[in-house]
Amino acid sequence: MSLPTPTPEQLQASKALIQHIQAEIDSNGGWVPFARYMELALYTPGLGYYSGGSEKFGASGDFVTAPQVSPLFGRLLARQFAGVLPPSGGGVLELGAGTGLLASQIIGELRALGVDAPYSILEVSGELRARQQENLQGTEVNWLDALPEKFTGVMFGNEVLDALPVHLVHWTENGPLERGVVANETGFSWEDRPIADPMLAAQAIGLDLPAGYVSEINLAAPALVKTLAERLDDGLLLFIDYGFGRSEYYHPQRHMGTLRAHYRHHALDDPFYLPGLCDLTAHVDFTAVADAGLEAGLNVCGYTTQANFLMAGGITALLAETPPDSAARYLPLSTGVQKLLSPAEMGELFKVIGFTKGNTQVPGAFAPGDQRHRL
Fold it and tell me: Where are the domains of the chain?
């Protein structure tokens, strides 16, 4: 496979990140858990994938997200949010807003619906925050440095959970081991060690997977859900991401896990390729996410595929607002909707999970095709 060649500046940045990670490995006794490597590769200030200046989204980036596929995605979310926001005092909080495109779509539709809810963004990447502020000039958005102590309204994240650092576990004849990273002359390589984290060890033992199985356990996603649950007074918490319920996630055929590197629209198995220039992601274990929400006092109001959620929410009615005889406008919208719904594209792999707290009730976007039984 022939991959695009990075620029000299990109290579220099990647080498600087490699040296930074190697220094941390050396200071940690020659080994770090993969979760720490992933955190450094993605979020090291100025050098990590999400903290550096490389193009991430769209045709010139490494992947395409739903709001780039169709503006109807954001408009539909806005209509769902409008149905659960209280008449006064409620807002919308987006976690990890990418380029700000989805925020623009949602804010525009909320305003068109006459809903004047304040919109906030919590963004850990300084580079992405700067891009959002540029793209959302003239739009009333509040950027947060930390979660508010209490929040009423809608909290949501689109493709946020998959970018949280994951632990890698190798199940062996002698029990599970944690797969970590060591430095060598050419970069990095794997080394398994006994699991030191009691929580990780308990989960790995509980999964009871056969010897030779390698996969991920994400401790950060449930922790995030619990933190958000503590801050949410009354409202909806919604996540859209690619993943499975636990029985599918740890299926025998998925014995090498779901961890992938993404570079210029190429999916790679090597997470050590050009650190800082590649996105690193793992699919989401939605059972773990649901359990965390329940333990934190949330109600799981629905879990379904993206296709079911969008269809039940009325995306075809939104598409029908553009006359088919206006081909220049209709055809791109129709193509985008097909990609959002198609089982071969984003429709089945991407899931939507919703939680409520307090008096919030969610309209019927989850009712047809609800798949909570698969969690």
Answer: 8-374
Residue 59's pLDDT band, with cuts at 50, 70 and 90, is very low
> What CATH architecture does domain 8-374 belong to?
3-Layer(aba) Sandwich (3.40)
Each residue's pLDDT tens digit, 94-146: 999 999 999 999 999 999 999 999 999 999 888 899 999 999 999 999 999 99
pLDDT tens figures, 277-317:
999 999 999 999 999 999 999 999 999 999 999 999 999 99
pTM assigned to the model: 0.95
Neighbours of 56 (CB within 10 A): 21
